[in-house]
Design goal:
With 347 residues, the chain is of the alpha/beta class. The protein has two domains: 175 residues, Quinone Oxidoreductase, Chain A, domain 1; 134 residues, Rossmann fold, CATH 3.40.50.720. The strands form four sheets. Strands 3, 4, 5, 8, 9, 16 and 17 form a seven-stranded mixed β-sheet that branches. Strands 12-11-10-13-14-15 form a six-stranded parallel β-sheet, with helices on both faces. Strands 1-2 form a two-stranded antiparallel ribbon. Helix 6 links the parallel strand 11 and strand 12. The radius of gyration is 20 Å and the shape is globular.
């Protein structure tokens, strides 16, 4: 039987390159030959055993592009060779949420690369109805960024209204995609706040109205310096809750807050009582729905998203263990977006 390479997260900070049999798609499934794969912040948390929904002995990877390589028996799917990205959901298909294609609300949902085998491999099995064709105007590398774009688009569309002024805390890849989604959805101005100046510089180049380095003062200081009122805040950090806490402290009564960053268990948000005291409209956001992928792909193809400068490192599958050890863990180099080139035929 033919074999393929994959990377398995065996235990704490322990990634192992393996050679295993190439999987076969079953009815309702397709096999994807993986081209590009982005590294998500959740992958990094899982590497340290801090992602509660991602156990060890897992093949990570859910931000990908590739080609339809094989179609399961009695299955309707896009033709062989089609350039695609994957919505990484394996839903139960029995509940009300699934019937309404709100797969992110399915209580028995499995996420590819989180609870089931992911794409840090040469081939991936995915549900046939969870693959989306990439137009020729979208590169395969951009195709591997559709998933994080959809995460932010899903969140921002909950709270953005045309003409809004927006502040986003966190200028990593998620924050920068959220900024662009806000403009697509009609925001008038979008400001970015972060502690890392290089990320703020990139946000400016990609269209942010203004930026603020939080090493220079508090978020409240920044908000009070702005000439206009802020309608919407978005936490694109999550983690220990400090970003969300600063938003609740700084914002005026009656504002909208969109939480996109994944908050860690045990996080502290001391100003949480302000949820009622300031009468916030608070939007939690979890992943995406199929329409988000459709909308993001259309906007990306139309040139409404810019991706230049976001990917800082590109490595082969064989180099993944060293990438996590040297760049992620030892911080030998600053990084923004890490990209794994697996079957890549283009940058």
């Amino acid at each position: 039987m033919a074999t393929m390479k994959r990377v398995l997260l065996k235990s704490y900070k322990n990634l192992e390159l393996q050679e295993v049999d190439i999987p076969e798609p079953k009815k309702g499934e397709v096999r994807i030959k993986v081209s590009h794969l982005g590294v998500c912040g959740s992958d990094i948390s899982a590497y340290y055993g801090k992602q509660p929904y991602m156990p060890f002995n897992l093949v990570m990877g859910h931000e990908l592009s590739g080609w339809v390589d094989k179609i399961g028996p009695d299955t309707e799917a896009l033709p062989l060779g089609t350039r695609v990205t994957v919505l990484p959901h394996v839903p139960c298909r029995k509940c009300k949420a699934c019937a309404e294609k709100r797969y992110n609300h399915c209580m028995n949902l499995l996420v590819i690369g989180c609870q089931t085998t992911g794409a840090q491999a040469e081939y991936l099995i995915a549900p046939a109805d969870m693959i989306f064709q990439l137009p020729d105007t979208i590169t395969m590398e951009q195709g591997a960024m559709v998933e994080p774009m959809a995460v932010t688009y899903h969140g921002m569309k909950k709270g953005i209204r045309p003409g809004d002024n927006v502040v986003i805390v966190g200028a990593g890849g998620i924050g920068i995609f959220a900024m662009q989604a806000a403009f697509i959805l009609g925001a008038a101005k979008v400001y970015m706040a972060d502690f890392v100046q290089s990320r703020l510089d990139l946000a400016s180049k990609l269209g942010a109205t203004g930026t603020y380095n939080l090493n220079d003062g508090s978020l409240s200081d920044f908000i009070h310096s702005l000439p206009e009122d802020i309608d919407v805040y978005s936490d694109c950090v999550g983690g220990n809750g400090s970003a969300l806490d600063s938003i609740m402290e700084a914002s005026n009564r009656g504002t909208r807050v969109i939480n996109i960053g994944v908050l860690a268990p045990g996080c502290e948000v001391k100003h949480l009582p302000d949820l009622s005291e300031k009468e916030f409209t608070f939007f939690g956001s979890n992943m995406f729905v199929p329409q988000d992928f459709t909308d993001v792909i259309a906007n990306l193809a139309a040139g409404k998203y810019r991706t230049e400068g976001i990917v800082t490192h590109r490595v082969s599958l064989e180099e993944v263990p060293a990438l996590f050890s040297e760049v992620v863990d030892q911080h030998k180099e600053p990084y923004l977006k890490l990209m794994i080139l697996i079957g890549a035929e283009e940058a």
